[in-house]
Design brief:
single chain, 5-stranded parallel beta sheet, 23 helices, globular
Length: about 500
């Protein structure tokens, strides 16, 4: 019977590796019918549940596997991965350490432990565990990429570059390694290397943007008589950022058609009257253009070094003055300075790292002679009401401006303010592109996008943006104190 069960187990493994999860599950359940406590079959059923994103079922099956065999180190590590997905980093760390205790040479457990430690910003401990994983599997490029990511997250850029380069020595076409190298080079303002590496993003699993499928040629920066189609990728903030390059496009003879998010079109049409804008999701027939280029690739042609930022357009967006001066746009009639505030990001993967609890800004919100107006999109009415009551203040909200959908209204509201205090979100980009004075609160590393590099605290892309960064991941106290001191000095409070 054991020979037959082993045959079924191996068949189930082959099905899993081949992506036939339903077939594998049927085979493994046959094993469980014969031997309900078969630890490895239960573990593999747990792995199938993980791949189907049914994490509670995965935990149930993995716990069953461990009940049958308390020394199944792979099941412990599988369980740790599930716990990390469910947000239980401490439980994940405990499970991976148990796997290592049972089998101190199990490289995957060190790698998984490193990922769990990275999730709670224990950068050095994560680095140590990735290096231990590589001790047992020195040519595993997934481990090397994770080591590079840990160095990157700890702001050890040279070490991160070295780790990614080692990956490329093994696999020169590893798109993930190229993608992460691009992030570091661009962050370090080494644009000549960065933009070239950034073109690997289309092959990288880390990039969620869709590549335009077209029979027309990619544009390589050359002037020509005809139509250039510049198509949007990534999010609204990126589209606003790269719009700073449109002034250079004006010097080229070709007609330009640019796709952007629909909510940006009114702003861009007013700000760049010589370009044609279409909705990002629209399909432009190939007969209507001669060459095409993704929006982010414009940097390769117009931002090759830091010197290319000198004299570049800074306040390139134009607000609708009628909106800004109306009650809808809001204008303070008192002598207090008007400070627009925004404190959250809706980014699915990194929003939590970029966001602050409104109450954490309490020392700033209690400043005298400063009136605060809400620029935060989303459902934040309960949070604002709680802070208003707890601090005995009043953060004003303009009820008839949908700060998420009505970008033109949001831009008008920003224009009506004297200064903006925000985290990394679309508010920061809108205000920076408007040339408004901005105090930007940024995370230490995780959640800080490469383009928020700065020179002496001033953003390279948006010179009106002053940057205040965490000194430790997750600790907002220092940047908040620094922003408060700046406001007090700026307005003589």
């Amino acid at each position: 019977m054991s020979t037959q069960l082993n045959f079924l187990l191996n068949q189930g493994l082959r099905y899993i590796h081949g992506g036939n999860l339903d077939g594998a599950e049927l085979i493994l359940k046959q094993i469980i019918k014969v031997q309900p406590s078969h630890s490895e079959a239960l573990r593999l059923l747990g792995v199938i549940a993980i791949q189907k994103n049914d994490y509670q079922l995965a935990l149930h099956r993995l716990d069953g596997s461990l009940t049958s065999n308390r020394r199944n180190w792979i099941a412990y590590s599988n369980k740790g991965n599930v716990l990390l997905i469910l947000g239980d980093a401490e439980g994940a760390i405990k499970a991976h350490k148990k796997a290592i205790e049972i089998n101190p040479q199990y490289a995957e457990a060190y790698n998984n432990l490193g990922n769990a430690l990275l999730s709670i910003y224990e950068f050095q401990q994560a680095i140590d565990n990735f290096r231990l994983a590589l001790k047992f599997e020195p040519n595993n490029y997934d481990f090397k990429i994770n080591l590079g990511n840990a160095y990157f997250s700890g702001n050890f850029y040279d070490e991160a570059i070295n780790a990614y380069m080692q990956v490329l020595e093994i696999d020169p076409h590893n798109a993930s390694a190229h993608f992460y190298l691009a992030q570091i080079y661009l962050l370090k303002m080494q644009f000549d290397f960065g933009w070239d590496e950034y073109e690997w993003r289309w092959l990288s699993k880390e990039n969620s943007s869709k590549l335009l499928i077209s029979s027309k040629e990619l544009w390589h920066g050359q002037p020509f008589e005809g139509v250039l189609y510049i198509w949007a990728e990534q999010g609204i903030g990126d589209q606003i950022l790269y719009a700073s390059l449109f002034s250079e496009l004006r010097n080229l003879p070709q007609k330009k058609i640019i796709s952007v998010e629909n909510k940006l079109i009114p702003i861009f049409e007013r700000s760049f009257t010589d370009f044609k804008f279409i909705e990002k999701e629209a399909t432009l027939p190939e007969c209507q253009y001669d060459y095409h280029v993704p929006l982010s690739s414009l940097g390769r042609f117009f931002r090759k070094s830091k010197n290319d930022f000198i004299g570049a357009a800074n306040n390139y967006l134009i607000a609708n003055k009628e909106i800004a001066r109306s009650p809808r746009g809001y204008k303070s009639l008192c002598e207090k300075k008007l400070c627009g505030i925004s404190w959250k990001s809706s980014n699915k993967s990194l929003g939590a790292q970029k966001s602050i609890a409104l109450m954490d800004l309490s020392e700033i919100l209690k400043l005298e002679n400063v009136e605060f107006v809400n620029l935060q999109y989303g459902d934040i009415s309960t949070e604002v009401a709680h802070v208003n009551k707890a601090l005995d203040i009043k953060i004003d909200s303009v009820q008839d401006v949908d700060l998420y959908e009505d970008m033109d209204g949001a831009l008008g509201l920003i224009d009506a303010c004297d200064i903006i205090l925000t985290t990394s979100n679309s508010t920061a980009h809108l205000a920076g592109a408007l040339g408004k004075e901005v105090l930007l609160l940024l995370p230490f590393s995780v959640g800080r996008f490469w383009y928020w590099h700065d020179i002496d605290g001033i953003s390279l892309w948006y010179p009106s943006v002053r940057v205040f960064k965490q000194e430790q991941q997750g600790d907002w106290s220092k940047p908040i104190q620094a922003a408060k001191a700046y406001l007090e000095n700026r307005f003589g409070i």
